[in-house]
Specification:
Strand content of chain A: 25-35%
Largest sheet of chain A: 7 strands, mixed
Strand content of chain B: 35-45%
Distance between the termini of chain A: 66 Å
Shape of chain B: elongated
CATH superfamily of the largest domain in chain A: FAD/NAD(P)-binding domain
Order of helices and strands of chain B: EEEHEEEEHEEE
Number of helices of chain A: 8
CATH superfamily of the largest domain in chain B: CPE0013-like
Distance between the termini of chain B: 66 Å
Structural class of chain A: alpha/beta
Number of strands of chain B: 10
CATH class of the largest domain in chain A: Alpha Beta
Oligomer: heterodimer
Shape of chain A: globular
CATH architecture of the largest domain in chain A: 3-Layer(bba) Sandwich
Largest interface: A-B, 31 and 33 residues
């Protein structure tokens, strides 16, 4: 059985950045495993611009952003196996892999970086009644069909869910000559970035119906229409004024789920809120030598943050191997409460942490003029006024090691609504 | 005096901009948190423009289409004409990232450049 120092599972933005950082930190026996026929992951189908503002100071399209990293991987001679699928990872870090070129193999790794990304929530998770006609796609599937395979999935489109992929596809389908009739969102706010509502819906005159959902899909062989209804604050359809909208295609942009089947098989503890591994400040999971980064860890809004996080995973994995594979003493818990849904990382080893550590988290609802509070044990350490916080926009806070008290056991993040 | 409310598209923050206009000229911009917002508000109210991205048909390639973008922004009211023009462009593999696949698209004076590589199809 071949043994590598670090095996990276996934050749998307997270895997690429992690591999580059690990190689630059002095690790030579590296391997990237990618199931698609090319590197770049989801970026290859994200042909719109807006990537890389933080990393490169310019707006790139997805494929261009990916290319910057792919070129580095080539220049650094980092080995990749494409069209290669990881079937299983054991807690002892043995990967069972199948691929076009090498067939079935077992590969041992001293460290593994999980970078499998996420999947779209499917129709089956939504409980929409109706048959299973042709014409129902997840927004990302439609994106791949249009942008890489050259097909237009339909002409008269309804989009359910206002996540960024749905918004981007509303514009894309419009530019390809399709008629996007409406974007419906079950929540009272959009999960997508504000600028995407402006440049993908408003620019094209596409209505966004908040607190609305699809309650029926009409059609047996092909979608013929959908029924839209308003929902109450508990997301239950309000009986009464329903609207039938004729269409041939329904796109679903209803959330992304970190893809952690392999993490589970390796015995990695998952966070029930993020759907991704519980990690320490060095992005180490509960299994020794197994790190995680990117959308498999928690779903990000911006690829720039994925790259930054993944390069930390890469250099931390290198440091872990070079430092004698020592276990961490992550005795401080980070928790989100009262409006803060989760934090990443969830655990902190004060002695191992860098001078400054960025903690990322999301709020559970929209807030206007509220305060974000950071608590060390039971003491409020900082209160930050925020004009707007929304679930669709990831928040962050930078912890400084010098600020942490000696008896620290819990860092809590909360939202406190200001008195009116 | 008229006012317009815009969402800045300069970065993912998406600031809400309040623009005061007098006879079609921008008098003041508020709500922005950086210079990009100010620039965007001026441009959006006077000569709005966008980068258009899309795909171009490729013959003999590993993929049937290649993703492209306009090398610069084009006037917002030309977006659909540019998109229609992209559908008519034909190119052959191999295509490299940055290759100019068409010039002066839809009379805008702007080129269309490839944003990815498309290798030749292997048998």
């Amino acid at each position: 059985m071949e043994t590598y120092d670090i095996v990276i599972v996934g050749g998307g933005p997270a895997g690429l950045a992690a591999a580059i950082a690990a190689k630059k930190a002095g690790i030579d026996r590296l391997l990237i495993l990618e199931r698609d026929s090319e590197l770049g992951g989801i970026l290859n189908q994200c042909i719109h611009s807006g990537f890389g503002l933080h990393t490169f100071g310019e707006e790139l399209t997805g494929p261009e952003y990916a290319d910057r990293y792919i070129r580095q991987v080539r220049e650094l001679n980092i080995p990749c196996q494409l069209q290669t699928m990881v079937l299983d990872i054991s807690p002892e870090r043995v990967l069972t892999v199948t691929g076009r070129e090498h067939g079935l193999q077992q590969i041992a790794a001293r460290a593994i970086i999980l970078a499998m990304g996420c999947r779209e929530r499917p129709r089956g998770a939504l409980n929409i009644p109706g048959y299973r006609p042709a014409g129902i796609y997840s927004a990302g599937t439609a994106q791949r069909l249009v942008n890489m395979e050259g097909y237009l999935p339909g002409k008269e489109i309804v989009i359910l869910g206002s996540g960024d992929i749905g918004l981007i596809m509303a514009r894309r389908m419009s530019l390809e000559g399709a008629h996007v009739k409406v974007v419906a969102e079950v929540l009272p706010y959009s999960g997508g970035l504000k600028r995407n509502i402006a440049q993908c819906l408003d620019d094209f005159g596409i209505p966004l119906k908040l607190s609305h959902t699809v309650i029926d899909i009409d059609g047996k062989e092909r979608v013929r229409g959908i029924t839209l209804a308003e929902v109450d604050e508990n997301r239950r359809p309000i009986p009464g004024p329903e609207e039938y909208i004729p269409c041939d295609t329904l796109l679903l942009s209803v959330g992304l789920l970190p893809e952690n089947e392999l993490s589970s098989s390796a015995g990695v503890t998952l966070d029930s809120v993020t759907g991704g591994p519980v990690v320490t400040e060095s992005l180490l999971t509960s299994v020794p030598g197994v790190f995680a980064c990117g959308n498999v860890l928690h779903v990000h809004d911006l690829v720039d943050f994925v790259s930054e996080e993944a390069s930390r995973a890469g250099s931390n994995a290198a440091a872990y191997l070079q430092g004698g594979e020592k276990a961490e003493d992550a005795s401080v818990c980070l928790v989100g409460k009262k409006g803060v849904r989760y934090t990443v990382p969830q655990l902190l080893d004060v002695h191992q942490m860098p001078e400054q550590l960025t903690v990322r988290f999301r709020v559970g609802q929209s807030y206007r003029d509220a305060s974000l509070c950071v608590w060390f044990n039971d003491t409020c350490f900082r209160r930050i006024r925020k004009r707007i916080m929304a679930p669709g926009e990831m928040e962050q806070f930078t912890l400084r090691r010098a600020d942490l008290p000696a008896d620290l056991h819990t860092i809590t993040f909360t939202v406190e609504e200001d008195a009116k | 005096m008229t006012t317009r409310t815009l969402t800045c598209i300069g970065c993912p923050l998406g600031c809400t901009l309040n623009v005061a206009l007098e006879e079609g000229r921008v008098v003041s911009v508020s709500g922005n948190t950086c210079k990009k917002g100010d620039d965007y508000a001026h441009k959006e109210c006077v000569a709005p423009a966008r980068t258009v991205t899309g795909t171009v048909r490729i013959s003999g390639g590993s993929l049937p289409v290649c993703s492209v973008k306009t090398a610069q922004e084009v006037p917002k009211d030309k977006i659909f004409e540019v998109a229609a023009a992209l559908a008519e462009i034909r190119a052959s593999a191999p295509v490299s990232i940055g290759d100019v696949l068409a010039e002066n698209v839809a009379g805008t004076g702007v080129s269309v450049v490839a944003t990815r590589h498309v290798a030749e199809k292997t048998a």
